[in-house]
Design brief:
Length: about 200
């Protein structure tokens, strides 16, 4: 499934940040079959447009809840397309076909459980069923993979808050320096990781 190409890149050339590549992966049987339009992937892309000041481009896919396909797509986004961050949406609940966390763990070298813990804590402020979420996050090479909720409202409730630590994580993985718009999400970095100007001195 494709969305208009202008929505797949953003940021500004005068940012102190580096160009970055993101992956957005919607995992849904019905959306992948066209039974309904995917709104979750575009919600993530809209967040990038609002929050990321660095220049960026994104690869966006909508696939069914099939674990082998999820795993192969995550590998492709990390290894072939060079995404420093891959954000998934969907497939994190207790239903039999919800296998996104298992696929994520299978392709990751190391897990980052704190992201799942923080997202559930955020969601529990809004709905008691947040305890049913099995969202997780992990690292594959120099890529961070994060599982987000499946609904646009829940996506924005969580990513707007949890993203504050993501630029530092990516930087520590020797990935690009991400500059954010502070009014949307203020990236938290130790003082030694803060960049005052672009690498080329501009």
């Amino acid at each position: 499934m494709e969305i208009p190409s202008p929505a797949l890149h953003g940021g500004t050339k005068d940012s102190v940040g580096d160009p970055a590549t993101f992956g957005v992966l919607t995992i849904s049987d019905r959306a992948s079959k066209g039974i309904y339009d995917d709104e979750s992937g575009p919600a993530i892309l809209n967040f990038f447009h609002e929050a990321i000041r660095s220049e960026w481009q994104a690869f966006y896919r909508v696939i069914p809840d099939e674990r082998p396909l999820i795993e192969s797509t995550l590998k492709q986004m990390c290894d072939e397309e060079g995404c420093c961050l891959v954000v998934t949406t969907g497939g994190t609940g207790p239903a039999p076909r919800d296998v996104t966390p298992e696929a994520t763990e299978a392709v990751c070298d190391r897990m980052m459980p704190g992201y799942g813990e923080q997202m559930r804590a955020i969601s529990l402020k809004h709905v008691p069923t947040a305890v049913l979420s099995r969202q997780t996050a992990g690292l594959r090479g120099k890529s961070l993979i994060m599982n987000l909720p499946g609904k646009p409202k829940a996506i924005r409730e969580t990513i707007d808050e949890v993203f504050a630590s993501v630029p530092t994580c990516i930087q520590l993985l020797e990935g690009p320096y991400l500059e954010t718009h502070d009014a949307v999400v203020k990236a938290f970095r130790p003082a030694g990781l803060v960049r005052a100007c672009r690498k080329d001195g501009a």
